[in-house]
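dude i think i finally got it to work??
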Amino acid sequence: MYERGYIVACDGNVSVRLPDNRILTTPTCMNKGMLSPGDLVITDLDGRQISGERKFSSELAMHLLFYRMRPDVQAICHAHPPTATGFAVAGRALDQALLPEVIIGLCQIPLVRYGTPGTSELSAALEPFVSHYDAMLLANHGAVSCGPDLLTAFFRMETIEHCAKITLAAELAGTPELLSGREVAKLMAARSRYFVEAPPGGGAELPITCDSVDKEDESVTLSRSELDALIDEAVRKDRARR
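look at this
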């Protein structure tokens, strides 16, 4: 993550579930691109430190929430990838039906409301999403991804940033063309063919399609005379009721 510019300075953290519900995690206040094995910390699921000379990150609580709610999750990445975090700062989810690979792999990438990093506020904001999504944007903060192993969690973080870059490029180039609901349904049905397992909660919302946008943007155009006639009719009905 450090080599790709997803984190700088002492940003970000990574964790892995070990046997006996122990958690191996990166320490606080250290550059994650310059760690040695001895810098890592082991805690239990309640956040009590078992071994390691360093102090674990205050954001460990976010990781523990995933491990407690998702037995299938074995690793978590938290980072601040620049383009994706730009969307999070702008208050925008990556929830449009633009890229088949993202739809198959992640369904969509929702935006979690802001919670102060390192506090219970962030865990409370995340909790409704954890069972249903494998990758999320954190408002005014960054992104978090999980997986059945560390590489998968990292690949999902890569997908978050890649999706954000392509979305931004498409919007700079013109108006992005969204896929239809029918196409999204076909992609979701193909997930098993690509060995993609949906999160156990099963409550992920489908991405926004061209069909849903068309419905939201439906408008009625009236001439001035038609508008005047409607106003006159409304006035007459109101007077009649009186």
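The mean pLDDT is 92.
im so relieved honestly
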